[in-house]
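thread: overnight batch results

M.L. [08:02]
morning all. the overnight job finished for the chain we discussed friday. pasting input first so we're all looking at the same thing
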Amino acid sequence: MTTDSTYVPVVIVGGGQAGLSVSWYLGRAGVEHIVVESDTPVHAWSDKRWDNFTLVTPNWHCRLPGYPYAGPDPDGFMTRDEVVEWLAGWLATFEPPLRTHTTVTRLRRGDDGGFELTLESASGPETLVCDQVVIATGGYPLPVVPPYAGSLDPAVVQVHSEEYFNPEQLPEGGVLVVGSGQSGAQIAEDLHLAGRRVHLAVGSAPRVARFYRGRDCMTWLSDMGLYDTPARQYPGGKAAQEKTNHYVTGRDGGRDVDLRRFAAEGMRLYGTLVDGTDTRLRFAATLTAALDRADAVYNSICADIDRHIEREGIDAPPPSRYEPVWEPETDPTALDLAAEGITSIVWAIGYRPDYRWIEASAFDGGGRPMQTRGVTEVAGLNFVGLPWMHTWGSGRFLGIDRDARHIADTVTESLGGSQLRLAVNR
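M.L. [08:03]
and the structure it wrote out:
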């Protein structure tokens, strides 16, 4: 044990909903622990979501330990501010041992086989040692911008999607949104509805119907067991797990995001952005194929629901298929920002992992944790809140409770106790 260090059996790094859910279970089991958070609890919901953000999953998906959604609209979609209020209500139900505004800058194996964590805060550096660590910092904390972003005209304002809040923050003129995953598609819609001239670089993200045959598609998929299927058994295997999430929106009660309709209304669509210099950008000729693939996934999911309805003998409205409302005449491959009056770019091309502060052989070549249900082969090193950690529901509100309980059980049993299962057996 390091001199002048503080010992605690378990340290949870990250005070978002996943880390705090593990804390909820450990607290009820009487396991001494601490949660270290670099900011304030669940701050990302208020600080890194745009003003018109809504959940894309129905409210009934929102389940945290001891706190399922109990509001008046289970099939609706909470706004950003409603999510923040709901989370505040949950936090008021318990008192986690939380250290805020404290950053873990280093995690390494201790001399006695446990772990040593170096902390930084306003009061200076500090060392914690522990037997078990739970990493709950999120799957991909670092926003991605392409390497050529610095070569573009400095007069063009560039923001990442986590920095976008509303159309008014951007200068007058056209806006290029790069990326058509959930954030990119919804931000493009937000700008489009505000009357901005929007250009959208479309990637490989698939899409899904919001409602189909009388119900929300995600409710159908839940009934079909898709959110509960273990990752190793999921159709399509690893390739399916690596795909970007389907774009759809919960805005205004929920609706499809149809990029073709946006184009018919004046939005300019392009394929994948390849590179750029000054004001000139180059795109791959992938737009037509990307739109066709997204629609094929949309119709395929609807067909899966059709088979489920038929198999279960469910009385539901008749089936349908999406038919394109717009087709590109060509696949554009170039764009001059100045000529088109584009004054800002919103990068919505995702995030990447950053576990450089963890000194342990628990990561693959891409820097992602090698884990099974959050448990690594490094004894005592665990993760929670990762996409696909156990199921498609992992990393979402729907799967957090189950994943957190499993990690809390694992940690407790590793410490030599069984009190967690006894205390919260349901």
